[in-house]
Amino acid sequence: GYDNIAGYLHDGMTSWQNAGLPLKHLGEWTVHELNQHKDDPDITVLDVRSDGEYSNGNVPGAKHIYVPHLEEHLDELDKTQTIATYCGSGYRASIAASILQKHGFEQVINVPGSWNAWQSANLPVERRKDVAVSMK
Prior knowledge:
Elements: H1 12-18, E1 27-28, H2 31-37, E2 43-47, H3 51-55, E3 63-64, E4 82-86, H4 91-102, E5 108-110, H5 114-120
Parallel strand pairs: 1-5, 2-3, 2-4, 4-5
């Protein structure tokens, strides 16, 4: 669930745009583009899935911070790097990307389809044996 909800947008994004309020746009990569960039030293691939999901496999080299804990661990990320977020399907990754933008990260990329699309494309999977799984 979500904690500390401050409000909601009545009539959705259309009302926001019609009011002339500012919008931020989020970059997107396919899983194939993520695969091409995953070894770039200027890119951080950020896995925002749960510990249990992460322990079953991840994009090689990905940093893991579960999305509900992201704001507590922002100091572990470099604002000068491009950060590509992924989760199971893309929903939590888009939330994580929004949180990063809120905190001044300007080079943020979301990966729609995320882990599901990665596996469907038969891209490389890393399984870390040293990952502790919390029972949350």
